[in-house]
Amino acid sequence: MSERFPYLKDQDVVEVQRGPEPGGLGGAYRAFGETLRGLKTTMARLVEGPLTIQYPEEKTPVYPRFRGRHKLHRFEDTGHEKCVGCSLCAAACPADCIRVVAAENVPGERVSAGERYAAVYEINMSRCIFCGYCEIACPFDAITMGHDYEMADYGREDLIFTKEMLLAEPLERTPLRSEGE
Amino acid sequence: MLPLADTQFVEATWIMVAKSLVIFGVIFAILPLMTVLERKLIGRFQHRYGPNRVGPFGILQPLADVGKLLSKEAFMPANAIPTLFVLGPLLPVLSGVLALAIIPWGDVQDGVGLYGIDVPIGILYFFAVGSLAFYGVLLGGWASGSKYSLLGAMRGAAQLISYEVSMALALLGAIIMGGSLSLVDIVRAQDAVWFIVPQFVGFLIFMLAGFAETNRTPFDMPEADAELVQGFMTEYGGMRFGSFLLVEYMEILVVSGIAAAVFLGGWMGPGPSFLDPIWMLAKMLALVLVFIWVRATLPRLRYDQLMNLGWKVMLPLATLNVLVTAVLVVVT
Lengths: 181, 332
Known about the structure:
heterodimer, A: alpha+beta, three-stranded antiparallel sheet, two-stranded antiparallel sheet, 22% helix, B: mainly alpha, disordered N terminus
């Protein structure tokens, strides 16, 4: 051993562990025992019951920091939009999927809290990679990543989410994972 | 000389017709349910639900399956042999239905024997008719004109000769103890104790051979979906494929029926005598559950392993079992 593998030390050499020979009467006896053990294993699985989540009816709960569909926010007291149309999110977006067109607020018809507001705010969900950079870039916490992940649609044009869609509450709430779940 | 079954027992023709219709109807009502049961149980064995979309608890799944199979084209490969190709799926159905005739559902009650027919050669009839199903496999595989099918059929042939002998020998012990070939007489002989107790080895060997007879795991080499893409069924589609599938379940029922009658006391059970067929059915279904359980557990055996098991383990064990039984029966 040592002349063939000079780099091996004695304590490194371990004898190969071999199982019993498969043939013969003993083999048949062991095969029978192992078969029973296998039957016991599957029966235990049957008793445990299914683990499947019946998806359309039953949804996987998401973690609080799950990055799903974006949400735009309003101030709760005044109802003004938090977004001031600064386009920092669009600048930060690596997928270039956000389009912002800003406009000046008119006194009396104030839309946002700042001087300007987003006249057009669109996110192209077919391009979005859900990285969350827009959320980080936003100085006013106007855009955050929500928890919804069911955004499949029939056409690409349906995947361009407008400001109204992003401001509205999602139709169906995604279940949130509780602590430690 | 062995007392043979009561061949003098005669019934009116209309009773025979009614009996066969009832047996046929009940069995063909159970078969689709068995397919769902198997898929659901296998699912549960794997932490899944199995089919649960069609109807309540997925119970209408076989209807959807049959609807799908019936609406498919009855396709035939260009180099298939037409007559034999069509005959392939038909022969096993015939054999399965014929074998159903001898399964005893109850003793003679009010002048009506609760079985299709009490053949004096009972178990021999089962073997004769059961082996007929194999011609379907061989013809279907050969007539398909496909390599996979032929391989599957050849595997089936080799499998047949390695388990059929042990299967017959496994039943021989029970036949010696019952003193008759007729299944009805064998069940009657189990009044005191079911034959599974004295013939436990025979029961095990019969069940093992039964797995092979019905081409199910761990002996599903003729089908072998992983390596032979369903073996002899490769070229079959639509309801021809469906009838192969149907036959598989029918054979499971038949083998379970024979095992229940020969080893589990057939219709014997507590309660009034009109419950006898229910007891028989319950025992059959319990054995069907064993079939499904084994399928969910064991992997497919390698080819030489099957041969080793058949010739080196099952055959000597079965022979020994018969010899010991014969000596004990003669001595006592």
